[in-house]
TrEMBL record:
Name by which UniProt lists this protein: Uncharacterized protein
Chain intervals with Polar residues compositional bias: 680-694
Lineage, opening ranks: Eukaryota, Viridiplantae, Streptophyta, Embryophyta, Tracheophyta
Organism: Urochloa decumbens
Domain VWFA: 263-446
Keywords assigned by UniProt, alphabetized: Metal-binding, Zinc, Zinc-finger
Length: 705
């Protein structure tokens, strides 16, 4: 038995047991708050058993540990012949390099170098600090430093990060392999029941604002065919709890909250190209996501390479739920090809088979490569059908209830495929050019998902004056329609994050009239995501004066600003089409013409900040089209992420998306900004959460558009 207990102690010394500190709001249903005297970790519990080997419980535990830890026939004979990290035998001359530390303990070189690479500079057996290490190259030195990125703190390397420290507390890959190899059920209806929720008093603050802006307040009495009207929507504001992920007043009986809980499925690429730095950064980013989901939120993780596997069922992120999630993520290894379609099919099945449903549901997809199993090679220039990668159950939702937010990681991903997947499902596409920015990109995304306040919104427009007709609606990717007689129209807006804004530009024809003309009346209907209450809001009627002679009135600033944004989005789409057919010079010319038109607009001459951001964005796109090589490496992905941001009017991650002069910044909501602050300031330490500190570079509040 002595050999068995030596192995057990070495396992504990190597950090193979996990203790995730409890966080306010994490208590299981019916559990009482832990006292300081009850704070005993898994490590200390196991150590207590080890110190009392004569007790029956300890004997049973020792037997189990002996079976689990035995890796070779000679493992129990001598600790000097067994690596304390992988528990395999160590014999000179067997083709494996060995490393003897200053403290005289010996390990496989590849085992200890991997441990040191992730910041462990102490002996796994005796915890002695080492001055000489087998691998002294800092991981931060191999993290690519792209253009700007998401304002990532470059000094924050994965081995120094608090979330990487949490992940390192989990079992090593060999110990966690059974999680990945466990058989999956036929149906994924094994999701954990929802937590009991206490009703929240939200009052009248959850009302969507509707504003309308005619191009001019007065138009001559003659008829006009193309008169612009802007409809502006703004979602209710976010309460403090909405941006933190958890309520500060959680109780054991219920979870009072002012936000709707989320069902989230993350689909993670672990193909061979993700090995090394990319996988370490992905684990850190997932650690951040797991830590910021509340006990009412539920998470399931799918890892895919040549095939897709569900790591664990859809379960609540309580204290124990986060422990299992961190262990599962830490167990991931990289190998194989890339099968995006199989992964999305499994994610859709998890959502379809749910026995319970949280109000908000979404999928996060990350990939650094191209689907090598479902997309045929490009024959005679034919464009692949990327929509075939999206399960039909996701495509068939009218309001796109399950958006897939896709993230292209690095420069080798298939941006066309990921953008098409996001576009078809109602999600956004983000381009993570600087691999070190992955955590900030995830933070911005979940900052929005944790603040959904409006669902199933539909905007309706009706002409009032019998001579007024609705000609067109500029709604980006939102589904809109105009009646055949031009008397009414509608826009399916779907869901909105807290404080999020939407602008829609309408074109109407005006009849000849000698008196004040009432053009339109606007209304919207939606469901509150927290209370499931249905709302119907009526906006003010749009009216204009009809003087006999023209006036010297300037165009409405809000209308001109939105017209510039729509014009820029159309130019980006046209430039992308030209570049994809090989006409890079034509693409650059299209963007250059758009920049010239923007500079001559009333809004630009008035110093409008949005016009400045649009010009900077178009200039950056021109630079990324300097040659075919640069366009293929980053230009296409940059254009598509910008196009996704414009079409949904929602923030996406790009190379310079945290620069306050860029357009993406204006789409950020306060919830996104605060979650980014948390990501950039390591607000959680391995000992638990701390107060949010101000970032080194203050992001500031998003400016109203």
């Amino acid at each position: 038995m002595a050999g068995v207990w030596r192995k057990t102690k070495k396992a504990l010394g190597a950090g193979l047991c996990v203790n995730l500190p409890a966080v306010a709001g994490d208590l299981e249903d019916g559990a009482s708050a832990p006292r300081a005297s009850d704070a005993v970790s898994l490590d200390s519990t196991a150590a207590a058993h080890a110190s009392a080997p004569n007790t029956p419980a300890a004997t049973a535990t020792a037997t189990d540990e002996a079976v689990a830890l035995r890796r070779s026939k000679s493992g129990g004979k001598s600790s000097k012949r067994m690596c304390a990290i992988c528990f395999d035998s160590m014999k000179p001359g067997h083709g494996q390099a060995l490393f003897t530390a200053e403290c005289s303990h010996m390990f496989h070189f590849h085992c200890i170098s991997s441990s040191v690479k992730h910041g462990n500079h102490v002996c796994p057996v005796c915890r002695a600090k080492w001055k000489e290490i087998p691998f002294n190259r800092s991981l931060s030195s191999i993290v690519p430093r792209g253009r700007g990125g998401l304002n990532v703190n470059q000094a924050r390397s994965p081995q120094q990060d608090a979330y990487m420290a949490l992940l390192r507390q989990g079992p090593n890959r060999q110990r966690e392999t059974p999680i990945l190899l466990a058989s999956e059920p036929v149906d994924f209806n094994d999701d954990e029941p929802l937590q009991k929720m206490e009703s929240a008093n939200i009052g009248s603050s959850r009302i969507v604002e509707i504003k309308t802006y005619p191009e001019f307040s007065a138009i001559p009495q003659s008829s006009q065919d193309d008169f612009a009207v802007l409809i502006h929507l703004k979602a209710p504001y976010a309460n403090p709890e909405q941006v933190t992920g958890r309520s500060v007043n959680a109780t054991s009986n219920g979870y009072p909250t002012s936000r709707a809980p989320v069902d989230l499925v993350t689909v993670l690429d672990v193909s061979g190209s993700m090995a090394g730095t990319k996988l370490a950064l992905l684990k850190r980013a997932m650690g951040f996501v797991i830590q910021h989901l509340g006990p009412s939120d539920r998470l399931s993780v799918i890892a895919f390479s040549s095939t897709a596997r569900r790591l664990f069922h859809l379960r609540r992120m309580s204290h124990s739920g986060r422990q299992q999630a961190l262990q599962a993520v830490n167990s991931l290894g990289a190998s194989g090809g890339t099968n995006i379609a199989d992964a999305l099919k499994k994610a859709a099945k998890i959502i379809e088979d749910r026995s319970y449903q949280n109000p908000v549901c979404s999928i996060i997809l990350l990939s650094d490569g191209q689907d090598t199993y479902n997309i045929p090679s490009n024959i005679r220039g034919a464009r692949p059908d990327y929509r075939s990668l999206v399960p039909s159950s996701i495509l068939n939702h009218t309001f796109r209830l399950v958006p897939v937010h896709a993230f292209g990681f690095g420069v080798d991903h298939d941006s066309d495929a990921l953008h098409s997947i996001a576009e078809a499902s109602g999600g956004t596409f983000s381009f993570i050019e600087d691999e070190g920015a992955i955590q900030d990109a995830f933070a911005q995304c979940i900052g929005g998902l944790l603040s959904v306040v409006v669902q199933n919104m539909q905007l309706n427009v009706e002409c009032v004056h019998p001579g007024v007709q609705l000609r067109s609606i500029k709604s980006g990717s939102y589904l809109s329609k105009v009646a055949a007689n031009g008397r009414n129209g509608s826009i399916d807006v779907g869901h909105l994050y807290a404080d999020e804004e939407r602008d829609f530009l309408l074109s109407v024809s005006l009849p000849q009239c000698r008196e004040q003309t009432t053009l339109l009346k606007v209304a919207c209907a939606y469901r509150d995501s927290l209370t499931s209450e249905d709302f119907k809001i009526q906006g003010d009627e749009v009216k204009i004066l009809r003087p006999k002679s023209p006036t010297s009135e300037s165009v409405c600033m809000e209308v001109d600003r939105e017209r510039n944004r729509v014009r820029a989005a159309d130019a980006i789409e046209a430039a992308r089409a030209a570049a994809d057919r090989g006409a890079l010079s034509d693409a650059v010319t299209i963007l250059d013409d758009c920049r010239r038109i923007l500079s001559e607009s009333f809004a630009s001459k008035s110093g409008d900040r949005l016009c400045t951001a649009l010009d900077a964005e178009l200039r950056e796109m021109q630079e990324r089209m300097a040659n075919r090589q640069r366009y293929e490496a980053s230009g296409r992905a940059y254009l598509l992420s910008g196009l996704s941001s414009h079409s949904w009017q929602r923030a996406t991650a790009r190379g310079d998306s945290m620069d306050s002069a860029t357009l993406v910044y204006s789409y950020q909501t306060p919830s996104m900004v605060q979650m980014l602050q948390r990501s950039q300031n390591h607000c959680l330490s391995p000992q638990g959460p701390s107060q949010v500190q101000q970032p080194r570079m203050l992001l500031g509040k998003p400016q109203p558009r």
